[in-house]
Amino acid sequence: MAQSGPFASDQSPAARLTSIVSHLSSPRYKVVVCRNLGPDVMPLLESKHELELVVWPEDRACERKWLLENIPGATGVIVMLTDKVCPLRNDSSHMLDSVLRSDLELLNQAGPSLRVVSTMSVGYEHIDLKTVAKRGLKIGYTPDVLTDAVADLTVMLALMAGRNGGVGYSLVQSGGWPTFSWAPFGLCGPQLSTTALSPTRKVGFVGFGRIAQATLSRLVPFGITHCLYSSNPSSPQNLSRDAELQKKHNLKAVSKVDLEELARESDILIVLAPGGSGTYHVVNEDLLRKMKKSSILVNASRGTLVDSDALAKALREGWIWGAGLDVVEGEPNVPKGHPLVKEPKCVIVPHIASATLETRKQMATHAAQNLIVAILGASVHVVRRVASSTGLLLKTAGLKVTAIKIDPYMNIDAGTMRPTEHGEVYVLNDGGEVDLDLGNYERYLDVTLSRDNNITTGKIYRDVIEKERRGEYLGKTVQIVPHVTNAIQDWIDRVSKIPVDNSGEEPDLCIIELGGTVGDIESAPFIEAMRQFQFRVGHDNFALIHVSLVPDMHGEQKTKPTQTTVHALRGLGLLPDLIACRLLGPKPVEKTTKEKISMFCHVATEQVVGVHDVTSVYHVPLLLQSQGIVEYLRKRLSLPALKISEEMISKGSSLGIRWKSMTKGQERLFEQVKIVLVGKYTDLKDSYMSVIKALEHSAFRVRKELVIQWVESSDLESPTQVSDPAKYHDAWRSIVGAGGILVPGGFGQRGTEGMILAIKWAREQKIPFLGICLGFQLAVLEWARSVLGVHDATSAEFEPDATHHFIVFMPEISRTHMGGTMRLGLRPTVFQPCANIADPDTSPSESPSTPIANGTDEDHPPTNGIYPSTSTWSKVRKLYGNADKAWERHRHRYEVNPAEVTRLEASGLSFVGKDERGERMQILELRDHPFFVGLQPHPEFCSRPLNPSPPFLGFIAAACDPSVLEEQLEEQLTSFKPPHPEGVMISEEALRAQMRERPVSRGGTTARASPELH
Description:
- By secondary structure, the chain is of the alpha/beta class.
- It is 36% helix and 17% strand.
- The protein is built from 36 helices and 37 strands.
- It has a nine-stranded mixed sheet, with helices on both faces.
- Helix 7 links the parallel strand 7 and strand 8 (226-230).
- Helix 18 (457-469) crosses helix 19 (480-495), helix 19 packs across helix 20 (524-537) and helix 26 crosses helix 34.
- It is globular and about 100 Å long.
């Protein structure tokens, strides 16, 4: 990509930063893949042209002879079992001397080039880490996938065994998977359902590690009330962990007991302990006789913990109700002729690696990704990070900074682009629909940009053509040079002077990012404009940063690509002042590499900085700062000549301290918060860039590690249950185990029924929920269907001719033009003094039928159907500091049908936030729910790393624990500060006048959905 930067010549000394990036050819690395990972995963590897793949051609485990022949010279290898390549520890029952010698033979055959072994493994316990470390090997493994997979299989076995078998050994033979769902709809046997006569249900675990705890979390929704476990007798009970699990799952007890008590008390006994001589046949005939006749046993362990002969006898003679076995080849020992195979009360399924296609895909994907990252490094938007990080550093020096992003495509803006093609469409205060990079600049620099801060070829050409039509070129022939290049320079000169923060003053510095590739035809006019611009503003006001890839080949950092691109750049008339070397991997740029680039690229060594992989993108500014980039720019741009006030210096210093504190805190996060994002565009995570960042910012505040589980909404729908049961099962497994459920924005009908099912689960199961835009509208539809009983309630976007439209087309929106015609930009939301809510003991028909006016007296005593002031109970209002109004950015064509609002509110759905006229519903909230909030606007667009979005903060806090939410509510009441400049937080009428919109007039209600965004 290419970048550039400026300021105006008639301006007081100000700086211009230009960054130009090139995509370069890379070295080739040999990778041996010991099993074809399938059509869904192999493209991940094949798309990396740096990798030279050697793949075992057959659909079975590869032969050792083949591996020995092909591993020499390999940089990486993907294997199904760690003992194919990595030496095993010489202890326990894990290894034999011959295996160790064989593994060392493989490593010796591979030679010193081997850097990474990516494997389907739960952990490192059985690997000889000393030998691995001595050889400098990286080990990639997939603990989360396998942990979740085994936990899911264990629950499935428990449910099937609770139905007394019926699936049988055919699963082992076919390697298939049952074509039914396990959650949230059924398969509950008598062992899982509490009744008046049996008010308790106890699950027992032999072994209580992370897989057992994951299994517990999946069993709780089915009615489990107690958890018992037996583990190593020499290990004391972890009381704090058990208390936390008890509280988290609302259990009556989590207790460590001996094996005999475990057998007597458990309704479901699950064996998950590791194998070995110390646990051989720990579940034997004596223990089975002590179990309840109504109980079931699930053996999902590795090793011979369960005596298979004794288990067959227990089932045959009725000692227990049923059993489920996870069969690994040889573990447990259940050959085809064993009595258990034909036992009708026993469910046998193959080990998870061969049972679930979706899980195999996940494990293979993780293995491929682990190898790619280890060899090529993590994917990073380099230019964006370097530019925004540089701006942040200069802001910590007390400077006022703005930013401009140039996209060479012909579109006027990003508004009509598919999210799955170009990523998220970012919305600005003035309604501009722009490239997602503008969001990165707003977040890092804490500024408010406008649509003019995003330049496209379409905008420039439209500007030039309109001038030509008006005769402003006085009859001259209009050409790329000088007319288009001058238009680019004029645009930059004008926009760089616009205030972007609360100071209301002209920025000191403008960072310009030019997208594309040096040499592209579409980028050429912009590069030429930058060449001219450096003379227009003067040498002291223009600096150029060139970002270039420095590949690492077998430990040697190569500089030829950088030399080549700098030569090309100089041929275009631009000389870089700084060269930022992007290194794929954790190894920093070497001194010799800097010296070589300095020699051949006509720069001093201090002008060469390295950007290697770091644990978080928020560390990049500190990485650049440590290499003296601020000091160099101070000299290069004569920044000391600028008169910076003491107030700005103090603010900059405070920003730097808080940023360092935030990044240091990230390194010390040990507790996780798991969020399930149910979306329509999950194939490209950049489609939800701002949502991800808002979740990250909130997780920073509550000091938790964020874990996002992605669920494609259509996978939750019943057609997927038939077409792809494994995918359906995996999707619902994520929903059932969610700490919080988020449904973001989107367009079109596809996947919306799945989103509604997820919303219903969150509402009924009291799972923290946040709905954004479409998620807000679908929460209304779910309520209308489930609570009001209007089963065909829908949106005019989905079914224009339907009878019951609870979501309608906004009357002022264009029905013929898509680009820039939605309700866009910053709008106020007025928190309602009171809310029309039905009394729990009053039917909807008896509830108030007249909406509460915005001016209702808060001191009036509450009556039936009216809650007290939202300032006393509304969590979302408290998150906004209990303010009367909140300002957020909108992007939508549809709204809640005003004709249905009274009925919705009377039934218990509280619209706590509306527009200034009280006509448009903008925030909903349920009072009797831990956190159930929907917003028509997009609060993610206004989130900042040091000032997280209030709704996202509340959502993340609620997903952690109610006490964390209460703590954040108290803090927000005193510390919340809107991220917008005070001058833009004005009435909607004033905003409408600024953006030259038509006033709202109620009219028709239906229109087709926007086809380009489905």
